[in-house]
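Notebook, student rotation project (T.W.).
Task set for the rotation: take a protein with a known small-molecule partner, predict the structure of the complex, and write up what can be learned from the model alone. Partner molecule chosen: flavin-adenine dinucleotide. Sequence and SMILES entered below by T.W., checked by me.
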Amino acid sequence: MAEVLVLVELNPAGDGVRKTTLEALTAARALGEPAAVVVGAPGTAALVQDALAEYGATKVYVAESEEADAFLVAPKAEVLAQLVGSVSPAAVVVPSSPEGKEVAGRLAIKTGSGFLTDVTEIAPDGTATQVAFAGQTIVHSQVTVGTPIYTLRGNSVTPVPAPAPATQEPVQVTLSEQARQTRVVDRVVEQKSSRPELTEASIVVSGGRGVASAENFSIIEALADSLGGAVGASRAAVDSGFYPHSFQVGQTGKTVSPQLYIAVGISGAIQHRAGMQTSKTIVAVNKDPEAPIFELADFGVVGDLNTIVPAAAQQIAARRS
Amino acid sequence: MIGSEAGPARAPRTTTAEVGLTMDIVVLVKQVPDSGGQRALDPQDNTVVRATADNVINEMDEYAIEEALTVKEAHGGQVTILTVGPDTATDAIRKALSMGADRAVHVSDPAIHGACAPQTSAIIAAALSQLEYDLVLCGAESTDGQVSVMPALLSERLGIPHLSGARKLTVEGSTARVERQTDGGYWLLEAQLPAIVSTWDTINEPRYPSFKGIMAAKKKPVETRTLADLGIDPATIGLATATSRVVDFAGSPPKGAGVKVSDEGDGAEKLVGFLAEQKLV
Ligand SMILES: Cc1cc2nc3c(=O)[nH]c(=O)nc-3n(C[C@H](O)[C@H](O)[C@H](O)COP(=O)(O)OP(=O)(O)OC[C@H]3O[C@@H](n4cnc5c(N)ncnc54)[C@H](O)[C@@H]3O)c2cc1C
Ligand SMILES: Nc1ncnc2c1ncn2[C@@H]1O[C@H](COP(=O)(O)O)[C@@H](O)[C@H]1O
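Predicted structure of the complex:
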């Protein structure tokens, strides 16, 4: 069986794999034998080895160097291109993060291949499923030239363990001038949060303009914490300064696909739906019975969020203790 | 290989910025169907319906235009809008010019219909190669494809650095520095000009075109180019030779109507009851 190269993405803390990597390893099995590719500073592979073995990596290509970590995106694309040349994989699967999409695009040009971004499923014949226009349209697409490259949207495939040897194979890294053009001078963390990462969380509680102030977002946080979920926000809430931009859900923000999405004081504009429509279960709290969010909610409560949400958080916390 | 005319990576040229002159800035602007309106694929050939859609300038590109104008105001220079798209894209170009850009290049050719992203990048790269530029600015993503790859493809084709996902840009001499927005923070990036920078909507607040700007835009030069003008063989571009294709599509299955209850003082109980029923708490 041909190999399928899977680019390994680290979690934000940099001390293990991101869940999207395990999802990509799982999706890759439909096409061949997953071979993980680690590109990073020396010592990176050791951090992820066990997870890669547990989730089906037959091999782990290890491309470690200080330089690979010092430059943006391009080193990863260069290592993958080198491997595409030497092992002729059936396909390449990359997590659909901003970085992953850039890697996929560069790799496509380097190898003269087509690519498909934000796929939610890959069939054994290579046909991929994509969701277009804010979830209104389901599209099936194929790559017709070269080695198919896919970026896999987070939370669309459930990671399934499938223990494999994960035999390490070192890859020599000699970066070209072109891969050394954009230097990462510093990586700055501004907010540390104990909550799960928004795009990976299985529960997301989002607040909109109806929350009415930055201070009042504490009731959204409390509900999220009672459920062990992440906090999100509509664009109107972000633009009004209630919550930081990195938590925005929607067309110009994050795309989330959790088990449970609770929309609080959010009207449900098409651009917001674009980022949460594929959530498994959707719950809405809104005082306007005509709010469009109710059209896609599995369960909706018409009423004032200021009384309902704190009470719900308390009751859930009480159930749990 | 598509659009090989765009050529291999070329050595970065001496930029005008380097010798202390003003900046040549090109902004990539795409026209897209309005995300608030009806958007669809054409069942004939599975391409995005553009002719009858309510078309607008890709929102993120307005931030790129604003940033270009800000850089020009600080360093002096010229802002050129570059658009690849059908004739209707002139509306987007006019809006960009009325915001304050100086001139525009519009690549339009029937052969482009159904082009895939790598093909479009070959066209944009070829058009850029005919222009002077120190800085190329573009949006971080377009709202129709949401591919977020165009600048990476161009960086690869042109051999110039890409500073991606900017929430802040500074240009000093021939060095560009960007704060790349990340979850919970940013990465500080640095590269030499000429470079391509893609922007998020956190970078600035785009200006509205003034009445004066709208009037002035009518007189600004818009040059049109065909694929032949760019030295690209039309047979290498378009639906027939695209690197990927849409096999089929369908509307997503409608969600069965859910339950809607009103809060009679028991809203929280009902909500928690539902979550418990679904085994979510
Ligand atoms: C190109 C483009 C991209 C966009 N991208 C995004 C995006 O990524 N994400 C996004 O979210 N939006 C996006 N938008 C904006 C989008 O169109 C909406 O304007 C936005 O989603 C509205 O946010 P909202 O629902 O919080 O606010 P509103 O639409 O103002 O809704 C507030 C809701 O709160 C309810 N409410 C008020 N008070 C209470 C109360 N006390 N109790 C209960 N309910 C209450 C109201 O009934 C109302 O339904 C985009 C728009 C454009 C044009
Ligand atoms: N056809 C086009 N013409 C001009 N610019 C484009 C075109 N397609 C994409 N771009 C630019 O590339 C950015 C990213 O687009 P995309 O990769 O399609 O998400 C956009 O915000 C535009 O600035």
